[in-house]
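hey so i finally got around to running the thing on that chain from the lab meeting. sorry it took forever, my laptop kept dying and i had to restart like 3 times. anyway pasting the input first so we r on the same page abt which one it is
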Amino acid sequence: MVEDQQNHMPRNRSRRWILGAGAIGVAGGGAFATKWFNIFADASVEGALTVEEASNQASSGDIFLIDIRRPDEWKRTGVGASAIPIDMRRKDFEDVLQTILREQGERPVALICARGVRSDRMSQRLAKAGFTNIIDVPEGMLGSGAGPGWIRRELPIRTPTPQELDGQVVPA
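ok and heres what got predicted. didnt touch it at all, straight out
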């Protein structure tokens, strides 16, 4: 076996290390992609809605559809026509949601984000905080393993108002 002159490792061993590190990088990237694109999302899970169901129920007033993405995301893609955009990063997110429920009437709340990752986490957080009737829309605006998403299904979209982009909640 020939030694690598710089680090005194056998050459084939240094190549194995590089290949092994590359495989770990690809596997790590695969895990990232699986999480980011929510590949294993499933809209048939109890307590979840498809984007079509969320759109229909929100427009009929049966649910509040809350788009929990960031304002820059709303601006880039628009929001569902019947959705209320509330940035989930707001410190008073739960208080704002509670106010909407109190003022607009108790109804189930469906959460939507880009690909269903944040809406799933927020659904769990709200349930732990005592909220009931929280529904996840795992398909999201951009699609996930649960389906192609609101935009690709060509469901109604509206441009968020300047007030909504500035963090002022304007219930539909």
